[in-house]
Amino acid sequence: MAARPESPQAGARPRAGSRPAKLSRDVIVNAALSFLDREGWDALTINALATHLGTKGPSLYNHVHSLEDLRRTVRVRVVDDIISMLNTAGEGRTRDDAVLVMASAYRSYAHHHPGRYSAFTRMPLGGDDPEYSEATKAAAGPVMAVLESYGVEGEDAFYASLEFWSALHGFVLLEMTGVMNGVDTDAVFTDMVLRLAAGMEHRH
User: Fold this and answer.
1) Which three-class secondary structure string do you get for 55-116?
2) Closest C-alpha among 111, 110, 118, 106 to residue 74
3) How do residues 28-82 score in pLDDT, each as one tens digit?
4) CATH superfamily ID and name for 21-64
């Protein structure tokens, strides 16, 4: 497997004296996504994002109701992006081919967008936000569709997708924290994914 490319730089800070961007909800959400990858989830506040945009905090409240409203919108947007990415990666593929390509795309997304990835895993599947919970469960949809090509269906496919996700998430976190430095992580990752896929043959 080819080495992952270097993570692209997130949006740069506005130059001193530059005119602030014309604000809208979409502009603010897109700026928050860029901000997340550079500064991280915990650093995302209204005032910090306003500074990133070259404006003042109160200006953002014309377009977002609160920090929680902003964070919730960002989380749902990230889930939608991941679903789209997985669907694109797996299009026209089945079984081991699809599983490996989709798993690699998921891993690449996490490394290129660490802040967004943190937002994706910030709330439980069965949390208090019904829209986010449904969006997160929908993220398993593309994987479940691939698992059906192994003959795994319904509730069993959903739990199988959670098992896959748990393995991928754990691997990504170990890479991000540097625990796997010095290890051929590409080879280990490929082997792990193919072993998981092989288990699907016996699941039903």
Assistant:
1) CCHHHHCCCCCCHHHHHHHHHHHHHHHHHHHHHHHHCCCCHHHHHHHHHHHHHHHHHHCHHH
2) 118
3) 999 999 999 899 888 999 999 999 999 988 889 989 999 989 998 998 888 888 8
4) Homeodomain-like (1.10.10.60)
* pTM, to two decimals: 0.76
- Give the whole-angstrom CA distance, residue 109 versus residue 142: 16
Distances (CA, A) of 193 to 17, 76, 139: 50, 27, 18
| Residue indicated by tokens 């590409």 | 186
Residue with tokens 């500064």: 39
Question: Residue 117: which of 73, 193, 173 has the closest Cα?
Answer: 173
Residue 41: CB atoms within 10 Å: 18
Choices 3.10.20.740, 1.10.10.60, 3.90.850.10, 1.10.357.10: CATH for 74-203: 1.10.357.10
Q: Is 107 within 8 Å of 121 (Cβ atoms)?
A: no
C-alpha–C-alpha distance, residues 135 and 146, integer Å: 19
Neighbours of 204 (CB within 10 A): 12
